[in-house]
Amino acid sequence: MPSLKEKKIDTALKTGLTRGDFLKTMGVGLAALGGACDWRWPHAKAVPEIDRPEGVTPGVARWQASTCGGCSASCGALVKIRDGRPIKMEGLKKHPLSQGGLCARGQATLLDLYDSGRLKDPLLSGKKVSWADWDKAVVAKMKSLRGKQVRLVTQTLPNPSLNAAIAEFLNANPSIKHVVYDPISSSSILDAHQKTHGKRVLPHYQFAKAKAIVGFDADFLGTWISPVEFASDWAKGRVPTSGSPKMSRHIHFEPRVSLTGSNADLRVPIKPSEEYSTVASVAIRLAKILGTVVPHVGEVSTTASSESLDQAAQILAQHKKEGLVVSGSSDLSVQILVNWMNSVLGNYGNTLDIQKPSLVRSGSETGMEEFVKEAISGRIAGVIFVEANPVYDHPLGEELAKALSKMEMVVSLSNRLDETASHAPFVAADSHPLESWGDAEPVPGVITIVQPAIRPLFNSRPAMETLLALAGKTQSAYDFVRAYWKSHVFPKQKSSHNFDHFWDASLESGVASYEAPSLSHTSFSSAALAEVKNSRPKVKEGDFEFVAYSPINLYDGHQAFNPWLEELPDPVTRVSWENYVQFSPADAKRLGIVEGRMVRVSSGKKSFEIPAQIQLGMPEGVVAAALGYGRITADDIAANYPITKIKFFPVKIATLHTANVYPFLNSSLVSVAAGEKIHPLAKIQRYDFQRDPYLQDKRHALREETLEEYAKNASGGGSSSGADSGDGLWDKHEYPGHKWAMSVDLNRCSGCAACVIACQAENNIPTVGKSEVRKSRDMYWIRIDRYYSGSETNAPQNPTVAFQPMTCQQCDNAPCETVCPVAATTHSSEGINMQTYNRCVGTRYCENNCPYKVRRFNWFDYDRDDAVQDLVLNPDVTVRQRGVMEKCNFCYQRIRDVEITTQIENRKIHDGEVQPACVQSCPTQALVFGDINDSNSQVASKAVSTRVYRALEELGVKPSIYYQTKVRNVKS
Amino acid sequence: MKVLGKIFKVSGLLLVVVAVSLSKAQAAPKKSGLTVSSTQSPQISQPAPDPMSSPIGFKVKTPDEETGISWLGMGIAFFLIIGGILFWANDVQSFAGILFVLGLFAGFLASGQRHYYHYFANNQGYAPQQPISYPHVLHAGKLKIACLYCHYNAEKSDVASIPSVNVCMNCHSLVRSATGDSGPNPEISKLVKAWESRDSNAPSPVEWERVNKLPSFVRFSHRIHVANGIACQECHGPIQTMTRVRQASPLNMGWCVNCHRLTKKEAPAHWKHAGGPLDCIVCHH
């Protein structure tokens, strides 16, 4: 072993450089290095407006009432505009129907606005032109077609001004006929009311008044007609309190596992072919109980247990005038029977209103089919599509596409070059609802305003203006809407005598109401009953029955280009990014199908191939697949969505297998062939199968009990075995000021995922793409866990499904805080587990130590390359970089904003003044947020309610989220 | 082998020559600004000469604006790494280790990841040339226009914001030249030009160089600080004496927290609340 001195000499001899020389050289070199690098931060410009408009304050958000343009339900929306760009959509409290909530799809319309794939200019045969040229060309073309068959095709438009514009257009072109259809149709309900009540109307369902609800495949909490309103109303009857341990009873018969079925007290799987029989069986039983004439329904046979049918009839009979029977069936006979039941129970006028009916669906399937057939036969010379895309979303879309190419004139008013518009030589770039003026009237007497939150991003024009221009009346949408309100709305209302006042007040509140005249209708005509019959074809051996349903994320597919919605998992199957064929476990076993195996579903010449998903609760012999997927170019967008910023390394992009299911909308029978390949699905929650016989394992993340149990022992969630084990080793935290806490009522929560999208929009949460979701690297700060449970008799074929919103529990004794080696996650004086991004070095110890698995790690710098899409980012929230951990912080930016405001105004924070994004968006008000130190706050009272428990509280982590045990109205 | 040592020495010195010849050595800024003491209200020290140089004293070459990469820095990194490899190959691991570490560090600095720079340096003293050489010394100093007249957002919003041109035009629609000037002042003319372009097809707003800037992971609210009675100068320095605005304070976390930690006794008497919240999340969320 040479001594240090010998080593030094050795080095010097070897290199001719002594240690001193080396260090000197290094020193000078370093100085040079310091100088050589520009240590300045990146340059930044600050560009103020030239003439700042009044009322605009940089850095301060403006809130503007408007109407959601996501679907025809037209919920009230509040748009947050920050520095000139809308960055958040929230529910409008004052809206009498949606009552402050907004669904996931509605909130995601914001991202549609910033879609760089939108049409940017009007097109004439694929070439960009000016609007003047476009108008001239189309008007000339329409002139040349005078006297020939021309159609105007729209979906249901519950928009009075737009309808007035269409009327102007049709006046100017009297030979054009108007065809209305709905991709997700309620045509059978409308037609049934024509038969039974003499008016083709869609009832306005009032779930708030219903104490007994029997549903037949109507997903009214997820997608059916007006889900936000229905969910909000439904939840009102679902909350037992210790004072009155009562709640509504909800029985649901359905051929797949929907959100609504999962939330029902009793979910009965039936085959689609048994739908008629099941409804008829309930009707017969009801007639017997009520002692009325039993309707003649023919032969019925259903696999639904007679117990469940009896129960359904009984609860309806017990709650006369307070019950509600709903069906989403497209079978006219089923709807007539449903009307009969509602009629004999006296529900009309109580829980269903057909005097002031819902206006959100008026499309006719037969009318549309007639048009398509005429088009195919070549009898139609021209067609104008207004925000309609039947080539994609009509069962005969492909045939229609062929017919379109032979027509003399095809005009499409569309916001992108979609399936229909790509067949049209004349394409008008349509503005987004957040860029246009308009209005909506979902129910007579409730009229809401649509006001723009931003100037059109591209050279687009609202459909209203385009139609007016084609009618020869060049008028701005604003002038037209205002004039319409002056002549049609103002005279009917009584709140104001001055139109300007009325207009300004309506713009401010977003809603105006007036006393609408009641529609007269005949009483139930029993003649209609004579027509009912079982029209479903018999199932051949080996065939499967097919269910095409609209999923809660993509609905009818018009938002398929929205990465937020594409990544949003289905609440029950927990699959994101793709559609899939759902099989019951028994069928899957029989066919040798495993999850992800490609399956070819065919009916006649049509077929599609997508992966399989094995779903508990599916009836045997039935397969189901979601609509809304398989749009042209949507897959490319979705597949390219994964991270693009991993420099130097090639990224394996996941392929997507999606299919358009619309051609199968009317196919009741299909044949199924299992393919060879296995295509792994991207699931947010991998664990499907029930653990113990009682499935909720011993750790009580989610607690359930029956209403009887609850009434008996109003002390809350089951046993006290999971009680808090005290403070343990830690010193108690002190919370001298506020202590923020949240309550989650599992009885109100329907699992609709509105909170998930609200959080994503508020907190700049990236979409990670399918390949990353497969690795469980989704970035959601709040997720909705799905639990299966049930008794030994019906599980695992038909488990009860329950949902639990799971987000950071903001534990007082947080396990994450104690393991962070750099103190990047610490405890705030207000009870929040703080995550300091700039301090985090990404050890992920905290993630491993979290019992709730709510922390998220940024594996990459996620895609922020789309400059248009980046306009959606919330400037109040840091965009996290690669290598740091993140999680829910109760929307601290919102808390801080209120804290600062109240400190400036020198007052206390009111209860409910601070609302995290998830709490605000919740249509059922399942989430309550507040200061638990304030004993008068709502959350403080929830924290001592009779149903309260905290998730995994036996661990002693002292969470700040108080769950309210889920109570089901079933016999224990 | 002895050649290696010589090569290293010579090339090291060469590098220094290159670096120095490229640089425009300038005097480092004198520290100026504000001292907060427990007994007195803030004292404003004498204005420093307008500094343009970096805090280190060298300003060699602006890195490539597109990529942010400093090729000279990359060259140095390359040199250090090669040196390390040579020493390693010749079994002098101690030198090699130092060279590798320094080489990687140099490469990191030069690679244009400038959003990491706040870890090594703050921007104190930064005083860029502005498109219009607006003198605060005249407006705020001599004419004594209140700060909040132009920066009226500071009490309403998180951002103080640079005034829009219409605010300037409140006075400058009449005032077109400084007292004693014969013709219109060229700087005011720039402003008028911007104003007149407001309704044209190609509006040309004034593109100011941003002086005070926080890293993207810091949230700062002006309005709460203004409401608490903190004078603008306490952070922005003697702005009423500046002809060109410079970043007077380091704006780093230690500097922020120093005030947030002050107790009632220590804090200046004119503050409504002593100190501020110390939870990380208040600024980092």
Q: Helix and strand string of chain B, N-terminal first?
A: HEEHHHHHHEHHHH
The secondary-structure class of chain B comes to mainly alpha
The neighbouring-strand order within the major sheet of chain A is: 6-5-17-16-15-7-8
Q: Helical stretch count of chain A?
A: 28
- Summed over residues and divided by their number, the pLDDT of chain A gives a mean of 88
> What separation lies between the terminal Cα atoms of chain A?
82 Å
Approximate strand percentage of chain A? 15-25%
Residue-averaged pLDDT of chain B, rounded? Answer: 77
The oligomeric state is heterodimer
| Biggest sheet record of chain B | 2 strands, antiparallel
Question: Strand sequence of the main sheet of chain B, in spatial order?
Answer: 1-2
Q: What helical percentage do the residues of chain B reach?
A: 25-40%
Describe the structure.
The complex is a heterodimer of chains A (972) and B (285). Chain A has 972 residues and is an alpha/beta fold. Chain A is built from 28 helices and 40 strands. With 285 residues, chain B is mainly alpha-helical. Helices cover 39% and strands 2% of the residues of chain B. Chain B has helices spanning 2-22, 71-89, 93-110, 136-142, 147-150, 165-172, 186-196, 222-227, 233-236, 253-260, 280-283; strands at 34-35, 43-44, 208-209. The longest helix of chain B is centred in the first third of the chain and has 21 residues, at 2-22. Mean pLDDT of chain B is 77; it is low at 24-66. At the A-B interface, α1, α2, β1 and α26 of A face α1, α2, α3, α6 and β3 of B. β1 of chain A pairs antiparallel with β3 (208-209) of chain B.
For this entry, give a set of tags.
heterodimer; A: 972 residues; 19% strand; B: 285 residues; mainly alpha; two-stranded antiparallel sheet; 11 helices; 39% helix; extended
